[in-house]
Amino acid sequence: MLDDFFTRALLGGIGVAIIAGPIGCFIIWRRLAYFGDTLSHSALLGVAIALLLEVNVTLTVFAICVIISFMLLFLQKRASLSSDALLGLLAHSSLALGLVVLAFMTWVRVDLMGFLFGDILAIGKTDIAVIWIGGALIIAAISLIWRRLFAATVNYDLSVAEGIKPQFVNAIFMVIVAAVIAASMKLVGVLLITALLIIPAATARRFASSPEQMALLASLIGVVSVLLGLNGSLAWDTPAGPSIVVAAMSCFALSLIKLPSLLSRKAKHARTDEMK
User: Fold this and answer.
1) What is the total count of domains within the chain?
2) Per-residue b/e over 183-196, b at no fewer than 16 CB within 10 Å?
């Protein structure tokens, strides 16, 4: 079964969608979309360094994303700039540095479009193993710190007073985001990773009644987006990574259309019950 490229793409995409669901929820709750964008941009620098040193690309991207995360924490304490300014500085600097390094490596043929927009149809059995095994570890880590991370998200000062150590929990969360970006880079590319994290979670937010429910719905919507995107890519010969993101955006657009009618129907039933 794994000899079929489309099956491998489905397994890889579904694995990443399941992981991205709960992570994307925290990114939305914490308003860290630009942080995710910064790490995804820095992934290209990781690719360049991996090719230069001839080491594993996924591990190098993960390492660079972690370094950028801790650089942000360091600069927030030392520099007199806002977080948005620091994120912009790190995002564009790392992206530009990655492109410059790649330009100097004239002896290496680099599929830049593949790194920027992904090539999910080219993933192999090793990639699937990395995604699912790494994903299981990520989900386990999120489960362990879920309550503390959510408490630090809702009220930072209160979590400090309760002895939760939010800075430590935040550092773990940054490492987890770096791992997700490293795992999903080959699927949707460095420019579309943030979309895969944010759009399913944003869609789930419109239907969920609890944080846990939102995380589960985000993963489910991500899986549906992967299925629709890959089948659409196969049917219309469009790029697979962007097709997945377009499918996710279509789900979000449908949620905007359907939700008001559902709410009005519930309100109508509520008024009917009151009259009775």
Assistant:
1) 1
2) bbbbbbbbbbbbbb
8 A C-beta contact, residue 222 and residue 21 = yes
Q: Residue 230: what pLDDT?
A: 93
Question: Tokens standing for 102?
Answer: 């790649």
Alpha helices in the chain (DSSP H): 5-29, 33-53, 57-78, 83-104, 112-117, 125-154, 156-161, 166-188, 193-205, 211-236, 240-275
**Model pLDDT for residues 119-158, shown as the tens digit of each residue:** 888 888 888 998 999 999 999 999 999 999 999 898 888 7
CATH number of the structural domain spanning residue 72: 1.10.3470.10
Residues of the domain holding 70: 5-275
- Give the chain's radius of gyration (CA, Å): 20
**26-35, Cβ contacts within 8 angstroms, sequence gap of 24 or more:** 26/149, 26/153, 26/173, 27/177, 27/197, 27/198, 27/201, 28/198, 28/201, 28/202, 28/205, 29/150, 29/153, 29/211, 30/153, 33/194, 33/198, 34/84, 34/87, 34/88, 34/91, 35/72, 35/87, 35/177
Between the two ends of the chain, the Cα-to-Cα distance in Å is: 58
Stretches where the chain sits below pLDDT 70 are 1-3, 258-276
